# Entry
Amino acid sequence: MEVFEKLLLKKPYSSGIRHQVYLKNNLFSCFSLRMLQSTIKTSTGRNHDGFVVNRRNYGRGFRSFRRIDFLRTDNINVPCQIKTIHLDSMRSAFVALIYSQNGTYSYVLAWHGLGVNSVFYAYNVRPEYYLFGSSSELRFIPEGFLVHNLESMPCRGGKYLRAAGTFSVFLNRDYLKKQATLRLSSGKIFNLSFFCKASLGRVSNVFNLHKNIGSAGRNLKLGYKYVVRGVAKNPVDHAHGGGEGKKSKPVTQSSPWGLVCKFKKTSRKKIQRR
# Structure
């Protein structure tokens, strides 16, 4: 059974769902392992003293966190089979429960086009068959393939390209520098060690980009609080606050703590790996 995904629009019988776009799929959680799951309780952004330390956090209900195997070291060169596919509340991509011939169960990120009973491998040598979802080092992957779940350093587990629908194109490799060149979907090109592992294919739930929540009430249930403009606050609460009517102070745009928001670089210089 392959995953079915479709974008749907509801009949606008209220303004809250007029622009709402939701995703319909055929996923169902008929089987799950409690040993691979844990329950996470979210707070309302307050610390142990009761002070707000994380603004715009409404506090979501209990969620089930599934531990994902990003390293895949327990299933080296062993065929793994997809048992069920789940919609995880902690990430935008789908999650697949796999069973390997070693007799172990684990969760992995689902890729686009997979279905129940699909088979894949985690190679540490040059693969004989390039199947979607299989992981291998970049030095063994052919040029032009789409990859996801990419490691930043060897033997660290996947760190990049884990969100829904993300992918990278493997361009080429340099055997002298032992580096691989990849291009993101945004067009950015970067180099990594070709001993890093990656999974073939694209991350599942590719239509997640087109979803539209539609209303603030639905957004609150997801844990995201509304944003109040600085000019609508009092002078003690924000640097832009105060004044009569819709009047803002002639100051440089700043944060509630007085830090300049514009005309100042906020990004850090990235370290060039050699």
About this structure: The longest strand covers residues 80-87. The longest helix spans residues 216-221.
